[in-house]
Amino acid sequence: MSLRQRQIDLVSSDLLAGRPVDAVSVAERHSIWRLSSLIHRLRRRGWPITASQDHGTGLARYALPEGWKPTC
To answer: Which domain holds residue 49?
Structure first.
């Protein structure tokens, strides 16, 4: 398994567990520094990831709609 695939698996596991992810939390939890690239790849796979922005810091926070599960 490639490093990129492992990173995608870690982020997707967080999202499926209902944990919103942002660049800071993912860097601290998994030492992943390019979250936006991984989010882009998951969206290209059909994941309906939403983004919200923290008005204080401008930090983007990503989440899945509640109850959503991948079909494949």
So the answer is: 3-63
Helices (H), the chain: 3-16, 23-30, 35-44
- Cβ–Cβ < 8 Å for 42, 49: yes
**Beta carbons of 38 and 55 less than 8 angstroms apart:** no
Q: What is the pLDDT of residue 62?
A: 97
| Interatomic CA distance for residues 33 and 35, integer angstroms | 6
| pLDDT higher than 70, residue 27 | yes
**CA gap 60, 72 in Å, rounded:** 27
Report the CATH number at residue 50. 1.10.10
